[in-house]
What we know:
alpha/beta
Amino acid sequence: MSEISALQKARAAYRPKLPAALANGAFVKVSEGEATKSVADCDKISQLFPKTYGSPVLTFAKGDAKAAAPAINVGVILSGGQAPGGHNVIAGLFDGIKSLNKDSRLFGFKKGPDGLVKNEVMELTADFVDSYRNTGGFDMIGSGRTKLETVEQFELAAENCKNLGITALVIIGGDDSNTNACVLAEYFKANDKGIQVVGCPKTIDGDLKNEWIEASFGFDTACRVYSELIGNLCRDANSAKKYWHFVKLMGRSASHIALECALQVHPNVAIISEEVAAKRMTLDDIVAQIARAVVARAENGNNFGIVLIPEGLVEFIPEIKALIAELNDILAAGGAEVEALDAVGKANFAQSKLSAASAAVFRSLPEGIRKQLCNDRDPHGNVQVSLIETEKMLAEMVGTRLKAMKAAGTYRGKFGKQTHFFGYEGRCAAPSNYDADYCYSLGFNAAALIGAGRTGYMSSVRNTIKPADQWIAGGIPITMMMNLEHRHGADKPVIRKALVELDGAPFKFFESVREKWAVETDYVYPGPIQYFGPSEVCDLVTKTLALEKN
Amino acid sequence: MSEISALQKARAAYRPKLPAALANGAFVKVSEGEATKSVADCDKISQLFPKTYGSPVLTFAKGDAKAAAPAINVGVILSGGQAPGGHNVIAGLFDGIKSLNKDSRLFGFKKGPDGLVKNEVMELTADFVDSYRNTGGFDMIGSGRTKLETVEQFELAAENCKNLGITALVIIGGDDSNTNACVLAEYFKANDKGIQVVGCPKTIDGDLKNEWIEASFGFDTACRVYSELIGNLCRDANSAKKYWHFVKLMGRSASHIALECALQVHPNVAIISEEVAAKRMTLDDIVAQIARAVVARAENGNNFGIVLIPEGLVEFIPEIKALIAELNDILAAGGAEVEALDAVGKANFAQSKLSAASAAVFRSLPEGIRKQLCNDRDPHGNVQVSLIETEKMLAEMVGTRLKAMKAAGTYRGKFGKQTHFFGYEGRCAAPSNYDADYCYSLGFNAAALIGAGRTGYMSSVRNTIKPADQWIAGGIPITMMMNLEHRHGADKPVIRKALVELDGAPFKFFESVREKWAVETDYVYPGPIQYFGPSEVCDLVTKTLALEKN
């Protein structure tokens, strides 16, 4: 047995809180709502999902403590990027199916959907599950990014489940994985495979949420880890008084993480991609906005500050989006001859072929970024946006702008810069109480959905700004969250992704205070996640959720 | 009043623990040891410090609870880089001088030694001190890097103290700041200024320690923050199973931080600069060592891992040290003509002038690093070693090595890499219980040294692997820790810097397990610093200290 840390040892004993409906186990009383519709494209979605479309929203109430159900075998899969709390979903599911019948068994498919197709599987025994309670990471059974999309995969999945006597699958994943879970549910039902499929909403990005799913798990913990670190940087900036820190934050396209961290720490500037797109801001606008804050603070003698930048930003800047699209085409068309050039050669080649507008944008970028755009390409020849060091690009461009302002006499401060990228540090942190409780409840509740014989549902636990015994447990038909999106040349049914809403309460609040934060030093230092202290320290909910629900 | 976080609010109430000797206040019973000598160069050090050399080691015991002393005015300065706990030193000093006489007053000189010379000062009142208890950062009064070295500075300092009635100064800083504190103490005593000077050992780097000072404050907290993050990366690596993470850790020249983090998380590889220097390892040796671990793990199907790299590494690699020295000379001699070249031009120019050995080393470096070495130079024309992205350099060179091995058929794995630098995130974290208690004790104990009429002493709190009531409080003559070092063409008295000792228990232990850690996945996940839980989680000491003292 490997060494485990003192904290992990103590934290293993934590008993996650459950909604009142699950207090007597996963055998619950089920209330059915009306038949449901998808959020858009109802006709087409209903045609694509004839067997699972239109199912009612389910709400659970406490069941009979002594009720028993037949023993079942259940399979579970972790899909996609890590998020804090995944292990607790599995622990909750384990305890949930055991509460239905102590002889129920849980099987973990390894390395994500691949394990289901290739039959890489292990039984998750009580001791094994216990050793992962309240821990971070997905190392318990691993995860993977294989998409479940083809009939061949579905048949193999059904076959492998059948061999283990598995009659229900729980897929823990993001919007795409849950969409695929629903496709699988539909296929199994249409083909009488006798296997239910239930999804659980996971992603630190926070972009899988809607009227019925109020948060994706992991968002809370990841934001707390990043906010701890940003708070520490704020304290450092305010102590040394000599650096502007540019912090890029993980979170793919949506800016929920950057916004939540801003709400937690009150940085001087936080760029929100959705606003950049809506206002069609240029790169120059963004640089100017940051430079304005630097200048205003310098006037007060404060030559330091904090800037938050969402990972996906460049794709939301219309002119950069256009530039990248042109570059993808130009460099691909250049063929092997261009491929053989070094970065400078590629940049020169691209420069000569770009439209006038894109060429101007390209020229305005720092040299390193120009090279990165030409050099770091994926196997399809496309720019790898996630590799673009936006934080360095903006810091450098702001520096250049300030130099010009200094020469013009409109800026008299000193500008020192540091850049950071926070991402991997937060994806596998041990879950906060919120995520530990929420995940455990999601998993336990998935067992209740299975017990209630449902398929094509997402496990739903709501009202989480209240104490756990007031949380509302139930199930939402996955089709209900779907619309059609045009992807790779075809219309596909997908769960609608939740971007930051510019008229939503979290952004509105941010908007109302950001001018003050830009100039004043109003930092808040959240500090590290606490597990053992007073409830007002340990049982926090995100600022985003609190603003959305209050 | 600005918003403060829930944790900061709850943590403000924490009462740091004190050694038993200070339980009745700073009026203590003093035991004097024998006259002391410096660690080397005794004759010269004693000539340089005729008034303060040879003072005895002091040990304190509990004093009379009802004793009173005259009210005094004391000044305090934070010097150099931030370290967690600085505010608690000030809070301890405040409470300590108040325990001597409730009418004692504390003045904070702002922005470091500069404030003392320029008379930028504020009185630290009870309310103000309370609002900073147990917080991180140095923002309470700011810090600075001005060195107190000249008679002119000393006279200004004496004048400014005299005007405020200050008869004792406490300087909180690293080895250089404490050396200067001693020079100041000597000057004040020799010139009958009537101002005592006492130092407190600060630095996250951990290189200010010796037989009498067992830790510099901030080291514990900074290492815990970095270990939390590295542990999270380990969990992520072990979950996604597709990246090697190369993590550079702050800590200037010594590798104490890298070693401590290694002991806490069990990474696959940790480079220790002192070993590199002692074994005269080449850059190629280091790359080969990391590549060996990658290959061995790939053989077991584990294409992931964690590598820790100390910030100061490049200066410990003999060939790189030689290369940098040559580059400094060559580029300085090149004058304005070379200065005007771009990075490629400079690199080509340098390449043509380097010795054959250094030219070969230069050629072996990745392009980006070559440019960095030629471009990022300080105002004196020297390479800025701290800007060299060693983590990227090593990751890239390991990648290149593995490609060659793959072509040769000696490696069949996949190598994906991510790089990180952890530094600023840890310097201003809120102090752990260890640092909160240790710092408060150091400050309170400094008041005891002042009360006992001593000068040229460092506040010493030892036996800290035991509960606080068994900690030993006292004072160490700063001259005792000094030797002469050749700096800028002259012999200077300095506190001997503590590097990682290769025959010390922490390194010996690391050496005994690292082969196992390299191949196996033996990660430990320390998690975030806890303040409210069981003592075995909240009152940890560093692995380094535990190994050194047990």
